[in-house]
Design brief:
The chain is of the alpha/beta class. The chain has helices at about 50-55, 60-70, 125-150, 190-205, 210-220, 225-235, and strands at about 5-10, 15-25, 30, 40-45, 85-90, 90-100, 105-110, 110-115, 160-165, 170-175, 180.
């Protein structure tokens, strides 16, 4: 359904623009989109005043989500998979070199990612699969390190996760403790990878971004802000196809 025209709620002295999308449902939810806009998904018969009150009640959470989105780098144009293109792997820049051969694969040597492909147009698929395979291996290894780091704080997890390309997030955690990570994370230095894993593991104990959550994260990783800034500075989030 098409969202309504823009409405404005008020949180203290801060205006909160939002749109309403009405659906056949029983509950009202508030969403902060990747671009920072706010959407209230409401039942068909929900009064406008009640929707506005709910947005205002969630004002602190909305502003916190918008601040977190603001520090993320903007998505960049889709990368080309041709010789000379630059790709990061574990924090270091590598030049892609595409060569023709029968046995397809990627190897890292002397600052290069050498991709062997049967046809040039297969380079993207070959390189993408290699990065995903390396993401699985590296994140599995780092997860074991991070589980040991969070254990003294009473955090326990089986270490399982899935990979999914995301345009604005490095990781996510559901209320049930299911972890998802962006395979592009393998481009980051290991300390940045550890930050993302620990960030999401902390959500298995403190789900939201509350004061208690940040206190927990700070006890485990005192310099998390500096590491987050480095991550968002050196690794680029790019749109998934």
């Amino acid at each position: 359904m098409t969202p309504s025209p823009l409405s404005v709620a008020q949180y203290g002295t801060t205006p909160l623009p939002y749109r309403v999308e009405r659906r056949s449902r029983a509950t009202l939810s508030i969403e902060v989109k990747a671009d920072g806009s706010v959407l209230a998904v409401a039942p068909l018969d929900a009064p406008e005043d009640e929707i506005r009150r709910r947005v205002e009640k969630r004002g602190a959470w909305i502003l916190r989500q918008q601040r977190e989105l603001a520090v993320l780098p903007p998505p960049l144009p889709v990368r080309r998979y041709v010789s000379g293109e630059s790709h990061r792997y574990l924090g270091r820049q590598h030049r892609l070199r595409v060569v023709i051969g029968e046995t397809e694969g990627v190897r890292v040597t002397r600052g290069e990612l050498i991709a062997t492909v049967r046809h040039p147009e297969r380079a993207e698929g070959v390189v993408t699969r290699w990065f995903r395979q390396r993401a699985t291996a590296v994140l599995t290894e780092r997860m074991q390190v991070c589980l040991e780091r969070v254990a003294p704080a009473g955090i326990q997890h089986d270490g399982t996760f899935q990979l999914r390309r995301m345009t604005t997030r490095w990781g996510s955690c559901t209320r049930q403790g299911r972890l998802t990570f962006n395979p592009l994370l393998v481009q980051a230095p290991k300390d940045c990878i550890d930050y993302v894993l620990i960030h999401e593991l902390c959500h298995t104990r403190e789900f939201g971004h509350s004061r208690n959550y940040y206190a927990l994260l700070g006890r485990i990783l005192p310099r998390w802000k500096q590491v987050r800034e480095r991550l968002n500075r050196v690794v680029e989030l790019t749109p998934a196809r």
